[in-house]
Amino acid sequence: MPNARGRVRYNSSQLLLFEQFAGVRNPGLKNFNSGPGVSGRMAARKATVSMKDVAALAGVSLGTVSNVLNSPDIVAEPTRRRVELAIAKLGWIPNEPARQLRAGRSRSIAMVVMDIANPFYTDLVLGAENCVQERGYAVQVANSAQDAERETAQLLILMQQRVRGVLLAPIWGLDDRVRQLKLRGIPVVLMDRAGNASDFCSVSTDDVEGGRLAVEHLLDQGHTKIALVGGPGNLQQVRDRRLGAELASSRHEISARFLVISTPHLDVDAGIRAAEDIVSLPDWERPTAVFAANDLLAIGLLQGFVTAGLQVPDDMAIVGYDDIAFAAAAAVPLSSVRQPRLAIGCRAAELLFDEIEAIDRDESHDHQQIRFTPELVVRRSSAKSGNLQEVVGT
Questions:
Q1: Same domain, 245 and 317
Q2: SS3 369
Q3: How many CA within 13 A on the CB side of residue 389?
Q4: The domain spanning residue 159 has which CATH number?
Q5: Are 273 and 335 contained in the same domain?
Q6: Residue 122 shares a structural domain with residue 230
Q7: The dihedral of CA 143, 144, 150, 156: what is its sign?
Q8: Strand, coil or helix: 118
Q9: Which domain holds residue 255?
Q10: Residue 26's pLDDT is what?
Q11: Residue-level pLDDT at 71
Q12: pLDDT < 70 positions in the chain
């Protein structure tokens, strides 16, 4: 740590590590040798050094070494220093998984997301990781790839690994595996999905409001034939965004006629195929605007329309969802409903640690449902000349 003069100070164990790996001698430690009770063979078998060797070198019990590792504050400073010096001298690295197994607790938090290739979920992970690392934990990420069986298998593995908690962006409903995690003392917080107040904490965005904002904007631009692209339709997020679209039409002075196009996935390729289907429609049936369930679909739609010779937004307006970084960087910058992705991930991690701490204290825990309000960011893909806005709130 830096001292008052800005110089870096090292403790004895760090100096010994420097000596071991850099060949730098520390005169203050030159007389620290194998000590009583330690055979000369120990130095020759560092690869198999154990906690017993550390205890013997430091002249303490195994319990004292364990306390130095797990509860250093309860160990007297001279004793703690001897153990740290022994660890550094022997080059011993504790087996963290084994130590966690003995303690029955892990220092890992798992995240299961639907599509790690989607920058929206990458940002959720980044947001959660910032919070998790502050607590001294690591993050394991699993990608369910929108496959319910794969998601269930991953949750089973995480249960066997006894992770400390799970942040889950679920595909469908919450199956028995999720509830089994909770029964085994592994709390679960839902991300990008509203939960039941009596069962789980959750952090999400108001997707009904997001869908309303997107379609209200298109109606304001004069579009009455609007395609709603994205699926599968049994995804709660997709259903809510379509509900918001219908709500906007029912409240607006101009009613819309919707063309619903479900897709097997929420990615660029699915958007390209949806654009091909739309372009193949006769002029009288073809919509003049598209609301995509996420930005990857919107990027694919943009590519498909441009390839077909359509002008965006003159021939076809597009609004996406999530406002990932690629939306603003597209060839035609995409209008999109913005979700606070980093904040969702971080807040979900905070709720998870709240529940972990309640479990450790054997206290009850009140589940919270956090719902963020989305914003519409209007860019060239949907704004007619002279009508460009930056951000539209609720």
A1: yes
A2: strand
A3: 11
A4: 3.40.50.2300
A5: yes
A6: no
A7: positive
A8: coil
A9: 207-340+375-392
A10: 43
A11: 72
A12: 1-47, 95-105, 175, 195-198, 385-394
